[in-house]
Structures are given as C-alpha cells and as structure tokens.
C-alpha cells in the first residue's frame, strides 16, 4: 500500500472558503468601481454663460446661487452670438441671455447634445425664472385691478393681463435618429470591452511580438470601419464624416488594446490583468461617457479624460455634434496611449531578437 503523503499548506475546505471570500471581494471592488461615480455624482462648477447688463447679471447670479448652489459657474459673454459660439466650442454647457432692460424676457440657451442632464438643469433654471416673472406679473396685475377699482374713470379703459414666457432654445440638439443620445452613450462600454477582448485575442493568438504590432494596426482598421458602419450607418448614433468617425473609433480601440498587448509582451500573462484592471476598473468609471466630467468628484472627471475611454467618448461626441470644438487633446491622448503600447511591444521585440529561439517553437525559429 502506498503511503499517503502528509498534507501541506492550507486544508482543502479552508482553501475553498478563502477562494470564495476572495471572489466576493473582487465582486465588491467591481461594484464600487462602477457604482461609485453614479452614487457620488453631483454637479459642481458647470460652466454656463450669462449675457446682460451688470445689474441683471448680479440679480440672476444671486438667484442661481440660492437655487443651484455651486452647481453652476457663470461666465460673462459679450452677447448671445458669443455665447452660442462658446457652446459650439464646448467651452460652456449653455447660457442665460438677459435683456437690456427688465421688461425684456430672458432666454435660456441649452445644448442637449453636450449633455441631456445639464440641459434639464438649465430647463429648471428657466422654470425658476418663469415663476419669478409670473409672480411679478401677478403683483402688477393686482395693483392695476386695485387702481381701476379706486378710479371709476380708469375702469372704462381697456385692460390687458400681461404675459411673458422665458424662451428655451436648444442650439445643439441630438440627431433625429438618436434624439436622446442613448445610442451614442451605450457605444462607450462596448469600445472598452472590445479593446480588452482584442488585447486578449492578439496576446494569446499571435506569438511573436513583432506580429502583434501588425495585428494591432489591422485591428484598428477593421474595428474602426466595422463599428463605424454599425454606429453611423445602422444606428445613426454618429454624425459627420464616416471616415473620420471610423478613424476615431479605430484609434480608441487600439489605444485600449495596445498597452495591454505591450504589457503582455513584456512581462507575460500578468500584464493582461494589470492592463484590464486599469482600463475597466479605473479608466472606464471616470470616463464621463454618460455624465459630464463636472459631475464626478474633483479631480477625477478631469483625470478620466487622460485615459482612452474618456478621450474616445469625448472625441466621438465632438466629431458628431461640435465641429467647432478643439479636438487636439483627445486625439493626442489616444495617440499617446497607442504609442506607449507599441513601444512596450517593440521593447519585447528587441528582447526576443536578443535571445535564442527555442527549437520546438516554429514561429520563433529564424527562417532559412
């Protein structure tokens, strides 16, 4: 009879319990990563333009501080045209246009395509201004009625109840094919997932690091053309030039995929885990793909724009709806992450060439 070797390490039951606890901890971390931005989101310092004379601006600023607290950050604009231009450049989310005299009805300018939540907030501002105007009109009407009652001669003259309505103008709405921007918002997560999945497939499906660089380029081209066709041609979620949108999507995919592939090429399988955690649990929740960066706790909203998910989502929105906005920063962020990934892979290529290829690996044996 063969003797049973003495048990070493953790007992099987204890090991099973430890693994279960570890799995639960991982689920908890994932839940915190995805739920934290939504639970803690609160508007802070949303830039909104204001146009009008100093006295009206001061009165409106005081009203908004009481109504919205620190949610809005008012910036003076020269006139309505300047405010609209600033909205189209994505410098502000909307504007409040006050008349040159108190008798003029104000206008609230919004851009739903910038963010529907902010546009709804500004609609609430317009409602508050409307209530204030209605109260003033009601007081003026009551005073006029009291005067007519006291003066029989005035009672015979025609009397019209005044009415004024705050105008809300959407200068950058979503397209008719995506009126609420839902299709554009849901595209963000598949890009993240696709980038990670592509990294896994390329890392394990292509053995030589040099060939992985070729695979990254091909993945960006094919992925950009395919996803661009789906999002723009089938769903109507993207507007503008199909080729430019396809290039942006392809670069966003590669910006996620390349660093993970580079880490895998350089340090082995753990590199995939490090890259995936960085993108999925850090970069994606703070990407501001579905909410303004100002809704996230400072400075996480701004930090999120330095990662591929945030830069990619911003770039696609600006290409579709804000052609006047500067797009240099998101293009540079995506190109930078792509370059880092390619550089890591290139280092692995140099290292491979400096070592002797195993004889039993046909892909690593030099030809000839």
Automatic annotation (TrEMBL):
What transmembrane ranges does the database entry give? 12-36, 184-206, 213-235, 241-263, 270-291, 328-350
Question: What does the record list as coiled-coil region(s)?
Answer: none
Entry keywords, A to Z: Membrane, Transmembrane, Transmembrane helix
Q: Does the keyword Transmembrane helix apply?
A: yes
Q: What is this protein called?
A: ABC transporter permease
Species name for this entry?
Rhodococcus artemisiae
